[in-house]
Write a structure and sequence with these properties.
Strand order of the largest sheet: 21-18-15-23-27-26
Largest sheet: 6 strands, antiparallel
Number of helices: 3
Distance between the termini: 51 Å
Shape: rod-shaped
Strand content: 35-45%
Radius of gyration: 32 Å
């Protein structure tokens, strides 16, 4: 009996599979092949000098998980004439299948947190040229909640790790809302209290308040909407808010209409607390607050890279964001990986 009769061919040279694999010691490569055949295994590694024999119940088509090691040869019962399957950037080898025509097909998937809309991520073994065809697989990183839909349509609203382009594809924790709709949107969950308060009334003598106006209200924000392409907070989105009283108040605004200019010894009525602590975000250095409105006053009580506390008032006016509130990644306070889902995408949408 010889190797040809056992139908084994040399597929790889100078490679060995990872550690912790059971090994045998045989007198020859022929004996190693015979053991492989007898045990109904599909392939084996053999080292001519050490006579180490490693049999496997499957065929290794890719070198991705192998370690270079001189002296080992890898032989298989059946293998594509083109040799080991090729490696491609941003593509993970998945399996090899043999089509009814006898053509070998290498199947690929995108890595974790990447998705593709390509329904044929294959490379074929061309027997005429004995080479693999180019792979038509475009893997895109999951950078928005819309991408989460494409990545895995079974995902439901919740916390996910996204990898937006504007953050150099670094991970950020985002709450995806509306994944069952045609336009899902991105939110940041706020672990700390966030308030925008516009008290009712205006001052009279002795800093007493008389009922006045219809713009008053107090809003607590549980999540804030973020434009994942511009990093800007949508201050007038109230999807995830608790209304304490009155009407909705914009995020980060401390306004009132108490005619404080005529009663400058009275306390300012409007109040805003913005706190993005523990979200993994911080204020962009250009984010600031200013006074706005008529006869306005604005006291910035606290301003750090994660907190703003302000009191404002006027007739009517107070403290307003000076342009958009933009958020950068806070590398000192990245949430634990277990607090959000790492997207696991299929081969296609």
């Amino acid at each position: 009996m010889n190797l040809t009769e056992l139908n084994f061919i040399v597929f790889l040279s100078n490679y060995v599979i990872p550690e912790n694999t059971p090994v045998l010691y045989t007198r020859s490569k022929l004996e190693c092949a015979a053991i492989t055949n007898y045990t109904h295994h599909q392939s084996f590694f053999y080292h001519r000098k050490t006579r180490v024999c490693i049999t496997l119940p499957y065929t290794i088509y890719s070198t991705q998980n192998l370690v270079n090691h001189d002296g080992f040869q890898y032989s298989v019962k059946e293998a594509p004439i083109c040799g080991p399957v090729p490696t491609f950037d941003l593509a993970v080898f998945n399996s090899v299948t043999v089509e009814t025509s006898g053509i070998y097909r290498a199947n690929y998937i995108c890595p974790s947190a990447y998705f593709t809309t390509n329904t044929e991520p294959f490379s074929y073994c061309e027997t005429s040229t004995q080479s693999w065809t180019p792979l038509q697989l475009n893997c895109s990183v999951v950078s928005s909640c819309g991408d989460i839909q494409k990545c895995n349509p079974s995902y439901v609203d919740g916390e996910y790790w996204l990898y937006p382009d504007i953050y150099n594809n670094s991970r950020v924790k985002i709450y995806c809302h509306g994944l069952s709709s045609s336009q899902p949107s991105e939110y940041i969950t706020l672990p700390k209290i966030n308030v925008a308060s516009y008290p009712e009334g205006e001052y009279t003598s002795s800093c007493s308040i008389s009922t006045f106006g219809d713009r008053w209200g107090e809003t607590n924000f549980n999540k804030i909407r973020i434009n994942i392409k511009t990093t800007e907070v949508t201050t007038d989105d109230y999807t995830f808010t608790t209304q304490v009283n009155g009407i909705h108040q914009p995020f980060g605004h401390a306004e009132a209409c108490s005619n404080i200019a005529s009663y400058d010894t009275c306390p300012k009525q409007g109040y805003a607390l913005v706190d993005v602590t523990e979200t993994g975000f911080k204020f962009n250095p250009l984010t600031n607050w200013k006074l706005g409105g008529w006869q306005s006053l604005c006291d910035i009580i606290e301003l750090s890279n994660v907190r703003f506390v302000g009191q404002g008032d006027g007739y009517c006016g107070g403290c307003f964001p000076d342009g958009a509130i933009k958020l950068d990644r806070d590398l000192t306070a990245i949430p634990a990986l277990s607090t959000a889902v790492i997207p696991q995408c299929g081969t296609s949408s």
